[in-house]
Amino acid sequence: xxxxxxxxxxxxxxxxxxxxxxxxxxxxxxxxxxxxxxxxxxxxxxxxxxxxxxxxxxxxxxxxxxxxxxxxxxxxxxxxxxxxxxxxxxxxxxxxxxxxxxxxxxxxxxxxxxxxxxxxxxxxxxxxxxxxxxxxxxxxxxxxxxxxxxxxxxxxxxxxxxxxxxxxxxxxxxxxxxxxxxxxxxxxxxxxxxxxxxxxxxxxxxxxxxxxxxxxxxxxxxxxxxxxxxxxxxxxxxxxxxxxxxxxxxxxxxxxxxxxxxxxxxxxxxxxxxxxxxxxxxxx
Length: 284
Hints:
Blueprint: H1 9-17, H2 23-26, H3 35-50, E1 75-79, H4 85-91, E2 97-102, H5 105-121, E3 143-148, E4 164-170, E5 184-188, H6 196-208, E6 216-223, E7 233-236, E8 241-244, H7 246-255, E9 258-265, E10 275-283
Parallel strand pairs: 1-2, 1-5, 2-3, 5-6
Antiparallel strand pairs: 3-4, 6-10, 7-8, 9-10
C-alpha cells in the first residue's frame, strides 16, 4: 500500500470529531436499532465462555461442595472506546475496574459525564426495565478511569505515559492501581486506524500488560473478503481507516507474538455490513 492508502492519525480524529457523541454517531447510524444490544450480548457471551468466573449468576454445573473462588478485582482496558458503549454494556457487567482510552474529546467528555451522572442515578431503570446508570458506579463498587490519547504510542503497561488522565469515577483503591496490568484488553472497531507496524507494536506492548497466563486480548473488528485467499485490506478515505481480512489480522497477531486460541463470528447484525469477528489472543 502507498502512503495515501494508509491510516492518517489526524485525518481519522478529524472525521470522528465531526460525528455526534451518541450511539448513532459512534456506530455510523446503527445506534437506534438492534446492533448495540446484539453486539454487546455476543461480546459478553464470548468472554464468559473463556472466563466463566466472571459470571454474576451461580453456575448450575458447579458443585455446592466446591470451594468458592477467591474474590479479586478483575481489570479491563477498553481502547478506542468512544462514548463508553463497550465499557457500559460489556466490561462493567463482568469486571470491577475499567480503564477507558479515547482520543476524541467530545466522545470522552460524553462518557465521563454519563459515568458521573450514574453516581446520582443509583439503580434507576428506564421504561424498558433496563438500568440507566453505569453498572457498579452508584454504589462505589466498580470504577472507570478515563484517559485521552490515540492508540499510536500508547503503552498499556504504562497507561499514564503519553496520555491525559481525564478523571476516575467510582471505587478508589488505597494504592494507585492504574499500572497494575489488565485481565482483559478489549479492542473493537478502532484498530483500522493503525497501520500494520503500529498495530503490531501496540499488540506486543499489550501482551506485556496482561496480568497472568489466563489474561487475554480481544480483537473484535470488521473483516473484508479474501477472493484470492491471501491477506488483504481495504482503505476507506472518508475516515482514513483500514478494513483488514481474516488472514491479514492473523499475520499481524503472529508477528506480535500472539496466538488465537478462540475465534467467533458475530451473528445477528444487520445485513449489508462487513462480517465482524472476535479473536481471543494470548502469548504464543
